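Below is a concrete protein record.
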Amino acid sequence: MAIWLSKKRKKEIIAVVILVLILLSVIIVRIIGQDDTTVPTLIAEEESGVAEESATKEESDIAEEPAAEEESGIAGQSDAPEYALPPEEEIPVYSPASAREPADQIIDIAHMYPYLKEELDIIALQYNCVAISLVFFDGDIGEYYAYQYGYADLDEKRVIDADTKFRVASLSKLVTAVCAMVLVDEGKLDLDEDISKYLGYEVKNPEYPDTPITSRMLMQHMSSIFDSSAFHSSLAARVSESTQNLLEKSSSFRKRQPGTQFEYTNLGYSVLAAICEKLSEKMLDTLARDVIFDPLEIDAAYVSGNLQDKENIAVIYNSVHKPTRAVEAQLEITDSGGVLGHDHHLAQGGLVISAIDYAGILSMLGNDGIFHDVRILSPDSVRAINNTNAQGRAYKQGLATRYSFGVFMPDEGSYWHTGSAYGTFAQYIYSADGTNRGVVVITTGATTGRLSNRMFEVCTDLSRSAWEYLTNT
């Protein structure tokens, strides 16, 4: 009997040793697979430049109801219920979005890279997210890596998939900027012309009436136009006050010369959209569909009711997991019934799009304006958007989209933008070194703070994990 117990004990010890050796080998392979000299790192640089009164509001984004941003607390302090991942059988196998061609390799992270999936799941639980849609892309070789987590609708237990569409807040600004640059390519818009010429009414800073305000200034947040109390009040009260009426108020301008100082402004992009509508004789949503979405076979819209697939829109939840924008409410958004240049609540933050489709737009910018052999912008216009010599603070938005140096690619820098409204936290980053790589992350219901460079903690942690793993695997 004693001899039999001894043999059993030996087998148990051998089994434990084998298990430990397997675990050690996995760890060693993981360490060897990472080259610290090539892994891009996020550097939380302190912002430089002038701090403005409205700088604390630069990511109120569309700001239809500015008070709705109460959820931007610190991770770990939420009273929200915790939601685990849906059961494995409820997670749909990834199917390519309509915009992707067979030549693209679309890789489901959950099935292809379970280790990375577990890492992203931990981050999702850490920030108590309701939903996450993440896409890492390598446009040069046509690879897209997709990760989805959680629910598009908690009440209905509707699980998100790669084609689930989100209202992406200020990530809308880049698409509005692309619309403007299409008009530049068509010879209809001069970025350095007085915008009064295009709008049909005079737009002047009353303190500097002799200094013209240009579209370039609008795109770089250098126009001296800012998000005044009148702007916020009209959005919060759902009052259909026209962009022109707001520009006739002296309170819509800072007392500084246009073109001399950066200040993030949503209203400035409303004015840019008004110019695009006047020049194209199309509503912004129609213009974007004609020059971007349809050519790229993307199902996206500033007016949700114009989406082809209206059944796969995500509910927006705040940090305590209360719905702030139901699907029905999102579908009720209109664009003033066809009055060109009137609205000011869509261009800066109203875009509804999936992460995979947004990645296609970024890949186009990383490929000199071409995506799937379809040219959207000229190389000159792409260079204008990716202008590293733009004036202002250390981070830019729209034109140029370069915010902060030393993000992911310390030597060359990266282009990025954040967006937040009503519980959505979104962020894109794409490389400026010619590799055509990038990450798009969209979340709802997260409890998150910001880094010193204004990136969201939840989006940055997710982006960094995906980037470091997938570029070193």
